[in-house]
Amino acid sequence: PPDNISYNCLINAYSKSDEDSADKVESILEKMNSFAHDTNVFSSEAASRISPDETTYNSMMNYYASRKNDHISAQRAEDLLLQLSGLSQHDSGIKMDSTSFNIVLKAWSNSGGGIHGAKRAEELLRMMLKLRKEHANVQPTSLTFSTAINAYSKVAPEDSAAAVKRAIELLDELEGLYIPDSENINTCYNAAANVIAKSGVPNSSELILDLMNRMKNMDAVPDGMMYTSCLEASVRSGDVDGIKRGKQMLEQMIDEPRFEPTSANFNILLNAILKSKSDRKLEEAEELVAQMQEIGGDARPDSASFNMIISALSRSNTPDAAEKAVDYLRSMLRLYKNDEYEKAKPDSFAFNCVINMLARSKHEWAYEVIQRTLSAMEAQERYGNASVLLDTITYNVVIGKLAESATITNAKKVMKLLATMEAKA
């Protein structure tokens, strides 16, 4: 007969699914309790092996914690924690532990409840702090604090200042406590930095730099995530000073031998530059992309980098914008095809941007290049790149461009494209 391990595995499987399986999960717990007390179906020994244990309840709570933006699921997870707490106070063999609390903390962090959800997560942390003297298994860990702190990164803009205040106060409290896994304390500082970076509060980059200094006092070392948050906070304003601070922070990351910046770090600065009001923003963006290509490795431009620079060029009035966009698309294809750099996988957006630019171009070479660009797009779709999907609009743009020049060669190309469209219909 099945035992509680069998049913626990089934509950875990539901946790990994995006489907709403709450009724199924609840029925499993109900069935386990029913079988555990019904010796007419199973022997007493077999029935005892079916009885729900702490793993069952943790699996149930984890199912609800995995539901995003659903405060009802978070409340159900907490209800199950209270049930588990009641069972652990009796001689049932079931004991709640830090894992149980951490799961429910995650549930409230994921609940989409804003500042209310964050406060509910913090209340659970407070409960753990009260219980830890009497229950050795209920000890707040770095995961407990980082989850509670991170919950404050998901608040409404009007609650941002209060969220930052609470995140820093939780760090203050943490620094005065003993936690069993202090070697993982970086996650707590990173969580606080994330709260600050997303808040948009004044002097956010200075607040994160202060966190870095605090880390050193705790024998912790700022890592790539901390620098990324500081970079994000630095450029958030989008003004000249903010972008200057962002460049300085990125240079520190490049010079720091302990870690290597990735395209994601550069993209934070790239996005800020392109959204700025600087007259040189396009030149600065091109310089940054060139720096990414020069550094290489994971710092090489990825799909987001190329899409941003190509999109910016498509809105530019500079005479060589189309030519540059074509070069960036070619670089993107080389990285993806020749260098097998998966992060540079081209998509429909990049191709369509370039094709539309070529359609507007007055250069004679645009007629030939627009056809080649479409052929490259067809090849990507043919070879299984799911990010590239050709539609009627794309074909019509190319056909319209070719039809501008009434040559026999272009007429043949148009007829071939029409035949392709008919075959796809």
Could you explain how this protein is built, in words?
- The structure is a single chain.
- The protein has about 425 residues and is mainly α.
- The protein contains 21 helices and no strands.
- It has helices spanning about 5-15, 20-35, 45-50, 55-65, 70-90, 100-110, 115-130, 140-150, 160-175, 185-200, 205-215, 225-235, 240-255, 265-275, 280-295, 305-315, 320-335, 350-360, 365-380, 390-405, 410-425.
- Helix 2 packs antiparallel against helix 4, helix 4 (about 55-65) runs antiparallel to helix 5 (about 70-90) and helix 20 (about 390-405) runs antiparallel to helix 21.
- The protein is flat.
- The protein starts with a helix and ends with a helix.
User: Strand percentage, roughly?
Assistant: under 5%
The run of helices and strands is HHHHHHHHHHHHHHHHHHHHH
Mean pLDDT: 92
**SS elements, strand count:** 0
Fraction of residues in helix: 55-70%
- The rough form would be described as flat
Q: What does the radius of gyration come to?
A: 28 Å
Distance between the termini: 55 Å
Number of helical segments? Answer: 21
Sheet/helix structural class? mainly alpha
Low-confidence runs (pLDDT<50, min 5 residues)?
none
State the major sheet.
Answer: none
